[in-house]
Amino acid sequence: MRAALRALRGYAFTVAGIAIGVAGIVALGAMAERIVAFIEGGDRFVLGQISVAGRGMGMGAGFTAGGLLPAASIEAIRKVEGVQGVQPQVMLPLNPSTSQFLTLTQELVVGMDVSIPTPNRHYPELPVRDGRFLRAADRRRAVVGAAFAASHGLAVGSPLVLEGERYEVVGVLERMMTAPDRFVIVPIADARDQWVAKDRLLRTLLASGAAALRADDLNTGAAVGWRPGADPDAVALRIREQVSGVNVQIPSELSALLRSSTAFFSALLVGIGALALVIGGLSLANTVAAAVFERIRDFGVKRALGASDWHLAREVLAEALAVTISGGVLGVALAITLGVSVDRWVQRAGQELFLFSPRLLGGALVFSLALGTAAATYAALRIVRLSPAEAIRRGSAA
Amino acid sequence: MPPEVTLRARGLVKRFAAPSGPPIEVLRSVDLEVRAGEMVCIEGASGSGKSTLLNVLGLLEDAEAGEVWFGDQPVSRLSRSAKSRERGRWLGFVFQAFLLLPSLTALDNVLLAARYVGRAGADARRRAETLLERLGVAHRRDHYPAQLSGGEQQRVAFCRAILNDPPLLLADEPTGNLDEDNGAVILAGLRDRARAGGAVVVVSHRPEAARAATAVFTLADGALTLRRSAYKEASR
């Protein structure tokens, strides 16, 4: 143990060099993982339901961006063959002055009619980390997404003011790595109040009595579920054909749209991954090989003392593995420390940059180990082919 | 009956590539025989090929032609690993630059010699400690080479060379980097090895080395010439 520690101490710079290489791989990989999780999470969320909005360009935002979806339309959707459950929703931007672009990252107020079970097949219940989800009788209560809670410093029991009204946070969702992380979920009646408060045109219209609107007509959209065995695309097409005045998102089309809109991120992801492997890998391989070559004179001396190829190869590989594992573990720890620190800082703005998944950490360690072994093997093969005298000469000249 | 031959070399030729022109021939058909109990000193001008000859005799590098025997076994054409094995079994080296491993303590440097010949263990440790004691560096056993003086390093290196009690000791300018007192200790150690029945080949400029040797050769222009031999003088 003492000898191993002493040997590792002699390799401090090598271990540090490897650690930096591995930290680079892991940090860039964790950013890539975060993007993957975001894309996959969004895909999974929107594919779990058929999203329907009222036709037009209204105040609503998010997946159901569009015009008004009155109660009559919701009732008509409910009657379409294959439909199982329609949950009226109101989605509003938290801050109406911000654009409705980038709806996946926008902070949204989502009004849900929780008397109706959530029809999203992948998220029949949104996972609550602290507190509880909304109940049908709740008013002026809110459940917030994890990123929203972090960026606004909210916890269960915290007060939250929306459109001048005071809400109490009763629950915080688990981090889902997708849109709900930025949601403020409130009872749909409260969301309707907010909508009226935010939208001057709607307020004027209602006040004029020109439109015969009831409270349950104020929906920006609806989440629609399908019966077991039904084809969601076919159900969505039937809604489009049979219900007038609605925008229906076909799940497969939406998925394709989502993927094409995130194609840039996917390409970026491949680029980041390749860059991480090349830069980190080269740094690691170079460090390990240099560490072996640096000791070329020692190997020459050992050969003079009777060490065979096998003795040297075993020693080189054992040392390379020891320093690579040490450097790898240190690099992973370094990347996690840096990532967590940066995330803590950017979480104040509701962001999260790194996702240290087990597959990333395991992959990075296996990759570095394989590369370290390959570099050490290459160096060992070069060294054992030298005569002991040549090894001593080169080592002494270095 | 003369003692048996420990080291024999016949027709050794060694050339090095020159930056331009034909290769430089540093050994031209060199013959040498060293018997148990002999201490052979090889002298020659700087760059005459003395170290190269020692390297070839110790299988640290190959000659272009010729053969080396340890005892009655030809060893020049053995595989790399077999040569390593024979080096471990037959040879001890003392280098001018000591060549201790910087990451090991004095004791561990000495024990390194036992590691590759399968002798590592309590016996080797005891012998290493005894040798360090005998050479006057036992109090430095846990020090690293950088913490030792040149003389102490060479004493440690000498202990390493004789730890396995090899039949043949090759010393390349072993006193070249030492002061007179330390040089005398090392030369005495080499002479004692020969007196104890070992064969010693030493490359040295020092007149003391030549005086301590039983035979003195000069290497010049690639040729090895006998200048003095105690055996020849005795047989006359």
Would you mind describing this structure in some detail?
- The complex is a heterodimer of chains A (about 400) and B (about 240).
- Chain A folds into two domains: about 170 residues, no CATH class; about 190 residues, no CATH class.
- Chain A has 13 helices and ten strands.
- Chain A has about 400 residues and is of the alpha+beta class.
- About 0% of the residues of chain A have low confidence.
- Chain B has about 240 residues and is α/β, with parallel strands linked by helices.
- Chain B has one domain: Rossmann fold, CATH 3.40.50.300.
- Chain B is about 35% helix and about 25% strand.
- In chain B, the strands form two sheets. A six-stranded mixed sheet of chain B has the order 6-7-8-3-9-10, sandwiched between helices.
- In chain B, strand 9 and strand 10 form a beta hairpin.
Describe, in short, the structure shown.
The complex is a heterodimer of chains A (398) and B (236). With 398 residues, chain A is of the alpha+beta class. Chain A is 55% helix and 14% strand.
Keywords:
A: alpha+beta, 2 domains, 13 helices, 10 strands, B: alpha/beta, Rossmann fold, 8 helices
Helix content of chain A: 40-55%
Q: What is the name of the CATH class of chain B?
A: Alpha Beta
**Bulk shape of chain A:** elongated
Rounded to the nearest angstrom, the distance between the terminal CA atoms of chain A is 30 Å
Going by CATH, the homologous superfamily of chain B would be: P-loop containing nucleotide triphosphate hydrolases
Give the distance, in angstroms, between the N- and C-terminal Cα atoms of chain B.
15 Å
Average predicted local confidence, pLDDT of chain A: 84
Order of helices and strands of chain A: HHEHEEEEHEEEHHEHEHHHHHH
What integer is the average pLDDT of chain B? 91
Give the count of helical stretches of chain B.
8
Strand content of chain A: 5-15%
**Number of continuous helical runs of chain A:** 13
The major β-sheet of chain B equals: 6 strands, mixed
Rg of chain A from C-alpha positions? 30 Å
Side by side, the strands of the main sheet of chain B go 6-7-8-3-9-10
| Number of β-strand runs of chain A | 10
Please tell me the total number of domains of chain B: 1
Shape designation of chain B: globular
* Quaternary: heterodimer
